[in-house]
Amino acid sequence: MQFGIFSVGDVTADPTTGVTVSEHDRIKAMTAIALKAEEVGLDVFATGEHHNPPFVPSSPTTMLGWIAARTERLQLSTATTLITTNDPVKIAEDFAMLQHLADGRVDVTLGRGNTGPVYPWFGKDIRKGIPLAIENYHLLRRLWREKVVDWEGEFRTPLQGYTSTPAPLDGTPPFVWHGSIRSPEIAEQAAFYGDGFFHNNIFWNKEHTEQMVNLYRQRFEHYGHGSADQAIVGLGGQVFMAETEAEAKRRFRPYFDNAPVYGHGPSMEDFTDMTPLTVGTPEMVIEKTLSFADYAGDYQRQLFLLDHAGLPLEQVLEQVEMLGREVVPTLRAEFERRRPAHVPSDPPSHAALVEAGPDSPFHQVIPSQNLTAGAQA
Q1: Tens-digit pLDDT profile for residues 195-220
Q2: d(CA 266, CA 148)
Q3: I need a labelling partner for 272 at 20 to 30 A (CA). Which of 40, 150, 265, 309 fits?
């Protein structure tokens, strides 16, 4: 099973000091966190994509390319790549280039984005977010799998005799996750293509997460990609740790109360009861994270948010250290001990997808079994 961290890249004042770091320092902090993740044995670093203040990661592949040059085994991903406001042609180019630079240590999480003002900045309409996500992703699959593309759709100018360069490394596109917290259409899309489904459940109760993940699993099986419990699932989470629960709560409370995403809402205690947030000891993080599989099933990737809400870099690096040294080894062993033999431990790697060969369902624009299953839907 893969464990890692994701960052949304917010620039938030530290409520305990009043200091707001510069955008330059925040970007440098994100890269330092990624390097620390590899150092302590984590598997994945993922960055969000945002084009509005107070966030800085507007160019994920630029950041991930820098990290690729300074790491050896860390899987590089995105917490969200905006499939709606980005041009699929540019996504195809950027991530294929990153694949080559990182020797295949790349996958991508696609999402609609829910920040209304961003859509018109890129000439799009948020009211058409779902159709945009569906059309743009189908075009992206063609760009990564067909040498020459002739295409016409609703949301961009037609392509005639177009070849995307560079081609994906080894003729094998990056593995794709579809990220969603509330759109069943996106879970359906992930299942149709046999892709992964990432439910970033840091804001949601377990009943909602269970409903979304189960929908994806059922449709994954319907489309003939395997049994429902073999579907490729990733989950988000957020933790803050200290030697005692009281100390963790004391240190994290001012950051929680002023967080740009959920600050000034439910109390920290209510939020930890209702969502995956864990504020306490490493043992408490282990116990709660293991419980995710009770309602989401056996899954393949767990990412944690650690650097949010103005936490200073030194504290974040301390959290990464604790996660890698004290939490993940136990989680890895326990999740694998419980996992049935027929359920994959990890998402598909680049090497595995290359080995599957050009005739495998992954390399088809529309997996062939879907043509029959889709007609029966």
Answers
A1: 999 998 777 789 999 999 999 999 99
A2: 52
A3: 40
What angle do the packed helices 313-322 and 23-39 form, to 10 degrees?
20
Give the C-alpha separation, 166 to 63, whole Å. Answer: 19
- pTM score above 0.90: yes
Return the bridge partners of 44, or none.
4, 75
Q: What is the pLDDT of residue 369?
A: 64
End-to-end CA distance of the chain: 32
Q: Using DSSP bridges, classify how beta strands 233-241 and 301-305 pair: parallel, antiparallel or unpaired.
A: parallel
Q: Letter for the amino acid at 265?
A: G
Q: Does 103 have pLDDT greater than 60?
A: yes
Bin 209: left if φ > 0, else alpha if -120 < ψ < 50, else beta: alpha
CB of 56 within 8 A of CB of 85?
no
Residue of 160, 302, 169, 174 lying closest to 238 (CA atoms): 302
Query: Residue 108: pLDDT above 80?
Result: yes
Computed on alpha carbons and rounded to an integer, the radius of gyration of the chain in Å comes to 20
Question: DSSP class of residue 324?
Answer: I
209-225 residues labelled b (16+ CB within 10 A) or e (exposed): bbebbbbbbebbbbbeb
Going through the chain in order, the beta strands assigned E by DSSP cover 2-7, 44-47, 75-78, 81-82, 107-111, 149-151, 159-162, 175-179, 196-199, 233-241, 278-280, 301-305
Which among 76, 9, 37, 7 is positioned nearest to 328, based on CA atoms?
A: 37
